[in-house]
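Record 1 of the preview.
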Amino acid sequence: MSVERLFKVLSDLYPLTDDFKKILEKTVIPLSLPKNHILQEAPKVADYVYFIDKGFAMSYSFIQGRKEVHHFWRDGQIILLAKSFFERTPAFQYVQLMQQSELWCITHDSVMNRLTAHEETNIIFRIIMNQYYAVAQDRIHDLQHLNAVQRYQKLIHAFPHIEQRVSAEYIASYLGMTPQSLSRAKREIGRH
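->
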């Protein structure tokens, strides 16, 4: 597993210096983990940031005994539970790998050391935080203003082949609908 994909994703956010790349390469930890591996458990504090080189993950919490899905991540994306990671507070969600995955991870201490030592780290983390904020705002907007069919279409556009990675129950939970409503949305799309 090579860190080149990680460098490419970060370079798309902000140009990386050779010095920063060398330090990052020494700092990140490669992981090869099986399907269903739990990366983060609630209510533990999030101690790592992950980059998915190959794989798929989701976050969820339990509300009144029911699993509610909050987020999906695919190849080339960064898993960060920002509030827990930066504020050192217990995470309210779990993060689970939904297929065998190749990841890079970096510890909280390493990130904090890089934040003070390298301008790139500060800028990249601000951009990542802004992206997470934008995704959250889009999700709120979608839940308030898009119908079930539109929300499902948007999800499958963002995550092609998601149905081969997670169950319809998890997709419905993420979209804020029942599995029956998801089935109706799929039938509606099939008619057009």
